[in-house]
UniProtKB/TrEMBL annotation:
Keywords, sorted A to Z: Sigma factor, Transcription, Transcription regulation
Residue ranges of domain RNA polymerase sigma-70 region in the record: 25-88
PANTHER family: ECF RNA POLYMERASE SIGMA FACTOR SIGK, RNA POLYMERASE ECF-TYPE SIGMA FACTO
Domain of life: Bacteria
Pfam families cross-referenced by the UniProt entry: Sigma70_r2 (PF04542), Sigma70_r4_2 (PF08281)
Transmembrane found in the keyword field: no
Statement: the UniProt record of this protein carries the keyword Thylakoid: no
Signal peptide: none
Protein name as annotated: RNA polymerase sigma factor
Domain RNA polymerase sigma factor 70 region 4 type as annotated: residue spans: 121-173
InterPro entries to which the protein is assigned, alphabetical: RNA_pol_sigma-70-like, RNA_pol_sigma-70_dom, RNA_pol_sigma70_r2, RNA_pol_sigma70_r4_t2, RNA_pol_sigma_r2, RNA_pol_sigma_r3/r4-like, WH-like_DNA-bd_sf
Family designation: Belongs to the sigma-70 factor family. ECF subfamily.
Amino acid sequence: MDDGELGDAVTQARDGDEDAFGVVYREVHPMLLGYLRGLVGEDADDVASETWHDVVRDLDGFRGDGQGFRGWAAAIARHRAMDHMRRIKARPRTAAFDETVTEPVTPQDSAGEALDNVSTQQALALIAELPQDQAEAVLLRVVLGLNAPMAASVLGKRPGAVRTAAYRGLKRLSERLAAAGEQAGRGEG
């Protein structure tokens, strides 16, 4: 679903159309859940539930397009995740993605090349090894499909800092995948 279609569905949902809200939920929830799994691991479902509660509560006040809605929902999710981590007084944890969670990758995004040949579980394990700023930037840009300004708004950083963190994270992932491929090639020969 493109940003225009999502924006239209959000507008209809805001006007009380339950079917439109279902469309919005089905479009955004898998990506939001993937992002949250990268932040809070096994507790992602609980945090996602809190996030959707806040989204429903505050939907009347939202104005924007599909990309704006994704960013707004990601910001709410991040706040709920940070609240959750403060409550449990733990560092961010990761867990395997459900295999049913899809990862939309935009064609112009170099992340697609880095992640095409690994399973979601392997990808999350690799992302979990990145520094937190790089991991969050990759999750927001790849899993949620946010542009740099929107991801920057979620993280409270400048767009250039998010682009740099995502680039470095993707480069590091690509290097690890290449090294793993070379080792597998030597093991087969």
